[in-house]
Request: fold
Amino acid sequence: MQINRLFEIIYIILDKKIVTAKELAQRFEVSTRTIYRDIETLSSAGIPVYMSKGKGGGISLLPDFVLNKVVLTDEEKEDILSSLKAVKTINLIETDTALKKLSSLFGESNTNWIEVDFSLWGSNTKNETEVFNTIKAAILSKKVISFSYASAKGEQITRKVEPLKLCFKAGAWYLYAYCKKRCDYRFFKLRRIKGLRALEQNFNRKAPKQIFFSKDISKEEGIKLKLKFTPRLAFRVYDEFDNYIENDDGSFIVEVTYYNESEWIFDYIESFGEGCEVLEPAHIREGIKTRLMNTLKHYI
Reply:
């Protein structure tokens, strides 16, 4: 208990600048003699704490004292502030306030080496922030939420869920929640959520300590694609694939396996335009050909 009290005494003095032994004694429900012993312990540990008598006197710290010199290393201090700076890109006022307080508490700090922005080019960051904050509040207050969701199958379905965690994966924010419609846990991409409402209904379900985005797919048979890309699409090959072969002419051969064969695969392939050719499998190649012919009808 004493070590916790000692740390809290430091924080209180840092916040109030000067405090009396009586105030600390009342705060911790101990005697003033105990507080004096705590001050001696802190002084012996190298904390520059001192006491002054008379009107306006009390317990204080030397003005140039900062917490990191005693508790945190320079590397730990930079990690904390850089992490907060990254989270601040969500435009959360609370994070901005915490960042300013800790920057002041830690003294001088250089976090200008990193700049993070989670939003897409040209995206509506204001709407994303509102959705994020509404979901965050619902998670903390354990309130059920409802919204309209556009699934990968092209369906627009109203969902009522118990929000458990906000997750960031592969350049996008997701909500991990228990879906009352499916009676199962689901991921929902925040950008596809519309008409979000927090309901008065509470829930007791707890979020797992760790979430795995993908289920165990080691035993599932996926669809293996073999794609050829022109040199012009080198930037997307580098961005989106881990394994590829670069040919002498600058083109690329990519082999990738997906475990969910649906319309989104065709949409994804078509997003590469004329710079991508499906080599295998044959039914995907034929499917792309059919879709392109149907698209061509709009321009004849």
In short: DSSP finds nine helices and twelve strands in the chain.
